[in-house]
UniProtKB/TrEMBL annotation:
It comes from Pseudomonas haemolytica. The keyword Transmembrane does not apply. The lineage of its organism: Bacteria, Pseudomonadati, Pseudomonadota, Gammaproteobacteria, Pseudomonadales. InterPro entries: DNA_brk_join_enz, Integrase-like_cat_sf, Integrase_catalytic, Min27-like_integrase_DNA_bind, Tyrosine_recombinase_XerCD. This is Site-specific integrase. Gene3D superfamilies: Intergrase catalytic core. Residues 194-403 form the Tyr recombinase domain. The keyword Cell membrane does not apply.
Length: 419
């Protein structure tokens, strides 16, 4: 490999003038960098001054095509064993590809999700380089991206960005714009996970008795703790969702931070059976909004399908509002603010509003509730998440549970008494 000696000082002088032209096996070959790979291709031409100049012109043309993004390996070197491998990706800038990808992805997601995805994609693409050619990206570029992201962001945020960017890279791979395997390099960061921090019975009582200044607030918190609803589901409840005679509420929608209604997280409605405290909380809330008018809302099932409903907000900021102009529905961010104020007045340790959902799960588990039933109440597909997230509360009952199981087995295996 490299430059072999030529049979004349004139040829040596001519060869020295042109960078990237070598002699190999008695013939001329060109050397150039493409997609961060050093490429060497023999031209099959004997060593003459004219051929050296021809090789130099060919190399200059190749470099120009690479720079402008029009290089076609197979066209220049159709017989090369590398033609298929090296031509598998097209030279496209990352920023241009992103602008093509966004509207294609948007058809499958809601406008608010599109906004979140777009923000994450823009940040990742800017860090990698919007003018970088997708075809030259290596796994180490994605590893560098991970390092830059985690430097000043929470792991949960970074993992969201990486998951979103992996989807974009997967699309690039499928369409031949970059090498395969880049999306797999978007490894998420391991997270300890924030363990559930449920309310104790005493803390719950402090919340509703000391922290709440209005019956609506104490009833809403009671309903949240005794149903395990997600904050968005709680805020989106309507009078029409309550079935007191049947002792249940129907969860058919959730509300986002910008006030958009959508279907629940799993995409499916569910019915939640109510414990006595939740039934009483519903009665209080219904009485408070008994004279409130119904409102027409639009619930997005996906980006292209939605349904119109006429319903009456069960939890409404207008109930306690002093302003003349007020939202008719709580959004999760507004509920967060109210929740923080209630906690502060009650004197308990601060928690996120989502902990009311964890409280419901932990209370049910420590009461030895059926896992499948609890999972269905909370809107999980199965009880896998219960086992993963709430294992600590299940393990605390393990010793007593073994004794209870053994007693049941003895009953089942004992001889039946004849009558």
């Amino acid at each position: 490999m490299g430059r072999e000696r030529t049979s004349g000082s004139g040829l040596e002088t001519e060869l020295a003038k042109h960078k990237g032209i070598e002699i190999h096996g008695g013939n001329l070959r060109v050397v150039f960098m493409w997609r961060r790979i050093r490429c060497r291709e023999s031209l099959g031409l004997p060593i003459t001054k004219a051929n050296i100049k021809h090789a130099a012109l060919l190399r200059a043309a190749i470099l120009h095509e690479i720079k402008t993004g029009h290089f076609d390996y197979g066209r220049h070197f159709p017989n090369s064993k590398h033609a298929t491998n090296y031509s598998s990706a097209k030279d496209e800038k990352l920023g241009a590809l992103l602008e093509r990808y966004k509207p294609l992805k948007a058809v499958d997601i809601t406008p608010m999700t599109e906004e979140k995805y777009g923000y994450a994609l823009d940040i990742c693409t800017a860090l990698v380089g919007i003018d970088r050619l997708a075809g030259v990206l290596l796994p180490e570029d994605i590893q560098l991206l991970r390092t830059l992201l985690i430097a000043d962001r929470a792991p949960s945020t970074v993992n969201h960005y990486l998951a979103t960017f992996a989807g974009f890279l997967g699309w690039c791979e499928t369409n031949g714009y970059c090498r395969m395997g880049l999306s797999e390099a978007c490894n998420r960061f391991a997270m300890q996970g924030q363990e559930p921090d449920p309310l104790t019975r005493d803390e719950f009582q402090q919340l509703v008795e000391k922290g709440c200044l209005h019956p609506q607030d104490s009833a809403a918190i009671t309903l949240a703790v005794y149903t395990g609803l997600r904050p968005g589901e709680l805020c989106a409840l309507a009078v029409e969702d309550i079935e007191l005679d049947a002792g249940q509420i129907n969860i058919t929608r959730s509300i986002t931070a910008n006030g958009t209604f959508k279907v629940p997280k799993t995409g499916k409605p569910r019915s939640v059976l109510l414990m006595p405290p939740a039934v009483e909380a519903c009665r209080v809330l219904l009485s408070i909004v008994a004279d409130h008018p119904s409102r027409v809302i639009e619930v997005f099932q996906n980006r292209h399908e939605s349904r119109k409903e006429r319903v009456t907000p069960l939890l409404s900021p207008s109930t306690q509002a002093r302003k003349k102009i007020i939202n008719f529905w709580y959004v999760p961010t507004a509920w967060n603010t109210k929740w923080a104020a209630i906690q502060k007045r009650s004197g308990i340790r601060p928690r996120r509003p989502y902990q009311t959902r964890h409280t419901y799960a932990c209370w049910c588990l420590t009461a030895r509730g059926n896992l499948a039933f609890i999972a269905k109440q909370m809107g999980h597909k199965d009880f896998t998440m219960l086992v993963e997230v709430y294992a600590k509360w299940m393990e605390e009952e393990s010793a007593g549970e073994l004794s209870r199981i053994w007693k049941e087995l003895l009953k089942q295996h004992s001889p039946r008494q004849t009558q």
